[in-house]
Amino acid sequence: MEPLKENNSKIEVILSYILIAGVIVSLMLMIAGMVLLYLESGSFIISRDPSMFIKGSNFFSFILDIFKGNGPENTALLLLTIGTIILMLTPFIRVVASLIYFIWIRDKKYIFITLIVLIILIITLSFH
Amino acid sequence: MNLSVTLLILLSTVIGFLGSLTGLGGASILVPILVFFGIPIKEAIAAGMIAIIGSSSGSALSYVRNQMANIRLAMFLEIFTVIGGIAGATLTVIINPVYLYFFFVLFLATSFIKIRSKSQDIANAKDKRDFLTKWLACDGAYYDKSCDKKIEYYPRNGLLGGAGMFVAGLAAGMLGIGAGAFKTTVQENILRMPTKVSSATSNFIIGMTALGGASVYLFSGLLNLSLMAPIAIGTTIGAIFGGRILNRIKDKYLKILFLVIVSALIIQMLYKGITSIWNL
């Protein structure tokens, strides 16, 4: 029988800090984006302009596009888009880190289970 | 009706706060309110789905404090909730929005039903595990401060629990909410996890389910950046404060607050649903 799973806790604490950092960075980018958006438009109204809607085909190529500088040309929209991506990456990173952990302790059952979750996520993020 | 960014951030903060107080979660209150302000329901749902990731990942903060979540069981249950979340979000993208009002009302109504957890028979629970939960080796233990001892628990009914979590994921993905109350109900009553472990574990699962749903919404052309950002900012901040104050408020007031909020939301969504049928 396994008691409190000490190692499990340790890696999860580190991971928790990564998640919190991710959320903070993402929210900061969003706040900056919103402020810029206000300075540009001078209005506080929620916009339903077509430029506000994210469009693309695949999460990973979308990220690559932004790295290559093919993201939104408007800085405010770019900040908001990157903020969204970082926010979406936080749970994704958690799965990847859990997989690494289960490989590290050679827990075959949970390597298998974590791989299933990861593959499902990668498939949906890729095909749209 | 025009909705301003400042008002939306303020509203989201209050709602994130109320949501974590009542256990209803921020998005299930926020989506009907966005609809009230004239935001199309599908866009409100997509924005809610992304915002949930923020409050869920942010709740990792409480994990650092108490370390109660069962990480292994969470990973197993995520298989079901993520598939449910993706299926639900896909449904929302393709169906007529009129149905969504009524699904939302249905979901809000279920939150009135409080299933009282049977007193947990911890003794001999080890023998009651089924083949699947034995194989999963997801037994856990935590230190309970209130009675100052280490409590061991042995989850069971793995498959039925998985099915329940699929339904929770489906509702979450479809309505852009966390469905946290539904998830903890499944965990406590089917999987027989202790209450404190259930709510900690469900916080982890909510984020992953939301990612499944959000990955569908991200490129469906429903995600409005200027709508999503204020909500994400507000609900995350509100949820952090709500979680801190939770233990200091009397149960009676919470129940009245809960009743008033849910009833108002149900009436409003019913009204919207019926008027949009009228206008078809």
Q: How would you explain this protein's 3D organization?
A:
The complex is a heterodimer of chains A (128) and B (280). Chain A is an all-alpha fold and 128 residues long. Chain A contains four helices and no strands. The longest helix of chain A is centred in the N-terminal third of the chain and has 36 residues, at 6-41. Chain B has 280 residues and is mainly alpha-helical. Chain B has one domain (5-278). The longest helix of chain B is centred in the C-terminal third of the chain and has 28 residues, at 251-278.
Could you provide a short overview of the structure?
The complex is a heterodimer of chains A (128) and B (280). By secondary structure, chain A is mainly α. Chain A has helices spanning 6-41, 59-67, 75-104, 108-126.
Task: Chart the SSEs and their pairings.
The complex is a heterodimer of chains A (128) and B (280).
Chain A (H helix, E strand, L loop, with lengths): L5 H36 L17 H9 L7 H30 L3 H19 L2
Helix pairs in contact in A: 1-3, 3-4
Chain B lengths: L4 H18 L3 H11 L4 H18 L1 H7 L4 H24 L2 H14 L20 H6 L3 E5 L4 E5 L4 H18 L4 H10 L5 H24 L6 H21 L5 H28 L2
Helix and strand sequence of chain B: HHHHHHHEEHHHHH
Please give the order of strands in the largest beta sheet of chain B.
Answer: 1-2
The coarse overall form of chain A would be elongated
- Summarize the amount of helix of chain A as a percent range: over 70%
Query: What Rg of chain A do the Cα atoms give?
Result: 19 Å
Give the biggest sheet of chain A: none
Amino- and carboxy-terminal Cα gap of chain A: 44 Å
Q: Percent range for helical residues of chain B?
A: over 70%
Query: Helices and strands of chain A: which structural class?
Result: mainly alpha
